[in-house]
């Protein structure tokens, strides 16, 4: 069965003419032989420090804000693995990458396998139109990118975001998962679904 490895990288997030310093989580799911990488923030070497010498099967992008996909093409070149992104995020991807596209479209309900462990894609628009979460039922966890944090929903005050939609996505897709599911977020600390469900009153 796969395990979850974690690191962080630091850099900037830019949108709507503003730039902020941010620290992103790096999540890698796999065993000693193969893995998938969730998002490609800031620094290829920082990501590779978590990957090690394993074969990378895929680079799964939770959404296309620049702090999550900035080094995706460079990482793809380093590890020779496809970039997967939901096509609804093309307008955001195009803000960062005009010369490169991703390789495979993600869609709701899509299933992938790494190290014999299934991963299910949940389309959770709101923070971004193509935002997805990656659910690993056998590992009891979900990787939420910037859709759900310790403390509630992700930000929706910028272009291409929708406050009502993110709440509906969380209610319909995430809170339908088992209450004890651990939430691995794009930034900051982990949480648990039932804690955020109580916090949001849903």
Beta strand count: 14
Q: What is the share of helical residues?
A: 10-25%
CATH topology name: Metallo-beta-lactamase, Chain A
Strand order of the largest sheet: 1-2-3-4-5-6
Give Rg in angstroms.
15 Å
Report the major sheet: 6 strands, mixed
CATH architecture: 4-Layer Sandwich
Molecular shape: globular
Provide mean pLDDT, rounded: 98
Poorly predicted sequence stretches spanning 5 or more consecutive residues: none
Count of discrete structural domains: 1
Q: What is the chain-wise order of helices and strands?
A: EEEHEHHEHEEEEEEEHEEH
Q: Name the CATH superfamily assignment.
A: Ribonuclease Z/Hydroxyacylglutathione hydrolase-like
How many helices in DSSP terms?
6
Determine and state the CATH class: Alpha Beta
| Through-space gap between termini | 33 Å
Classification by helices and strands: alpha/beta
Q: How much strand content do the residues show?
A: 35-45%
GO molecular function: hydrolase activity
Keywords: Hydrolase
Protein name: MBL fold metallo-hydrolase
Pfam family, one: Lactamase_B
Report on this structure.
Keywords: Hydrolase. This protein has 202 residues and is of the alpha/beta class. The protein has a single domain, classed as Metallo-beta-lactamase, Chain A (4-Layer Sandwich). 23% of the residues lie in helices and 36% in strands. It contains 6 helices and 14 strands. The strands form 3 sheets. A 6-stranded mixed beta sheet has the order 1-2-3-4-5-6. The chain is globular, with a radius of gyration of 15 Å.
């Amino acid at each position: 069965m796969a395990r979850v490895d974690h690191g962080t990288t630091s850099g900037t997030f830019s949108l709507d003419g503003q730039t902020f310093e941010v620290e992103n989580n790096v999540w890698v799911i796999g065993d000693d032989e193969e893995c998938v990488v969730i998002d490609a923030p800031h620094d290829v070497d920082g990501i590779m420090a978590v990957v090690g010498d394993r074969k990378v099967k895929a680079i799964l992008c939770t959404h296309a804000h620049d702090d999550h996909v900035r080094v995706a093409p460079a990482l793809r070149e380093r590890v020779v693995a496809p970039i997967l992104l939901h096509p609804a995020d093309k307008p955001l991807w195009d803000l960062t990458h005009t010369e490169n596209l991703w390789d495979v479209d993600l869609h709701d309900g899509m299933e992938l396998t790494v190290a014999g462990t299934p991963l299910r894609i949940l389309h959770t628009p709101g923070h971004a139109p193509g935002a997805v979460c990656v659910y690993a039922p056998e590992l009891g966890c979900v990787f939420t990118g910037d859709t759900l944090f310790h403390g509630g929903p992700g930000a929706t005050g910028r272009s291409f975001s929708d406050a009502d939609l993110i709440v509906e996505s969380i209610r319909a897709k995430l809170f339908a998962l088992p209450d004890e599911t651990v939430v691995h977020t794009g930034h900051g600390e982990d949480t648990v679904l039932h804690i955020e469900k109580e916090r949001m009153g849903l």
